[in-house]
């Protein structure tokens, strides 16, 4: 009893000594500084001096963000509010014919509407057919359109919907915030806790000096800006990230240099003010420890630096110019993001390693439960994938074992990486030319890692910043397609593959489907992806880096003559003399030469 009393007194004495009171006040001030003072976190970071506040290494499992308030309509390219301008609307219709079932992926699971468009209905608002007599929409002087100004106006109208909206620095007009690294100072890598949520996503389209912009590219880019940024009240912002390649002039040395480079970049006038230029020197100064910095290996390096200099976005989609969305692009991104947010973490990697082929395995529920069965109700990964080189930043699992979780963990949490096609274990992959390419890791080629080609992905700021840190300070590298998935898994960050609808030119060939399905979850020995590693080539898919079919679909839709050896795409529907295409994303759509 006496011992207890004296312990209590001692405790009280410790609690109230002057030092501990000062310590408590200091901790309180630091926390308040990070979380309460909106101006404490600048969007323009000092990249060389350590900030006064140090946060916790690991994230916590936070409750989901509240929904943003209602979108405030914005002005479109015709100078009218988009909500009151039918000429700006794309025409998406439903047809009373059976909708084709995707070869893999699902409309229902991801929530993508089963609508159809004609080429005029799709791209008419953006200038398709404007030179024809029959063009019955009002015409736009595209050269005097300023897409960045429209985006900025739209964001300003909507700023109060976003946390600290007014403090977000939205300047991107005709100058870039990117900078060569100051080699006279030691660099530091900003950490995830130095930023607060902005609830905004950058849509970053990769392009390069000398790219020849055809009309179809212009239609595509205009549609992206209207349908993502303008129709969502600024939840997205489209950026052209322009590779100046080996351009001689030092582009960041002066404003005139930068403006000259912009001229030389070939970016069409209407998009100039949303372009952000970079060149080889930028990567040279930031990533000297990674010897190979060419795009084919390190496509995310410019994106890492973009996130570093433009941290006013929570997420960053990397898109290519050779993509097409046959329905509303904003809806597509909204649905991909929602699916990923609602997906549980448990078995998310396992689900991403199998293809959801409805004709083979049923709906998404059937698919998920087959993956669960193959994993005996547990998971191969629970929390970070531990490797000696990484001190994870992701949150601790709320229950100790995956088997104890009823698919609750991660539901409502935005994914740190959203991939657009299947993932594979790089160590087991037998036909990827870059599979042995890795450096800066203790176990080198034995390091567990995953790839999910193509490099069309969405990444959180936190994930890009840890990849940046690893490359800047430790020279750790692996190929583009493996970079974001692997860093996400090592750090215990959330990965999601929303299996959007993908079609195949060979509609009814079950044998061929079987070669891709590879027995599915049922035939898998460990539930960790198909045990058979060899896959056929992906020439005939509507979304796959090797494919030629997307071009054929676009050509047929536009009524162009197809080459003799190209079959008319079965999934196009003809009605009243018009050709309709189902809603999906196509990639790659290369220029007809
Ligand atoms: C404009 O033309 C398109 C295609 O030619 C047609 O479908 C549409 O109904 C027309 N709209 C108006 C308002 O006339
Ligand atoms: C728009 O600008 C481009 C590139 O500067 C030029 O080639 C084209 O003729 C212009 N179009 C019109 C309608 O002025
Ligand atoms: C999918 O699940 C449902 C309900 O459990 C079942 O009736 C159906 O047979 C399953 N489909 C396939 C293809 O396994
Ligand atoms: C967690 O799962 C293990 C193995 O499945 C089981 O033995 C244990 O009782 C579970 N614990 C809780 C708290 O559910
Ligand atoms: C699941 O359980 C079966 C039977 O107990 C076992 O053979 C199999 O290896 C287990 N699979 C996994 C992924 O643990």
UniProtKB/TrEMBL annotation:
Alphabetized InterPro entries for the sequence: DUF3405
Protein name in UniProt: Uncharacterized protein
Keywords noted in UniProt: Membrane, Transmembrane, Transmembrane helix
Organism: Rhypophila decipiens
Residue ranges of the TM segments: 21-43
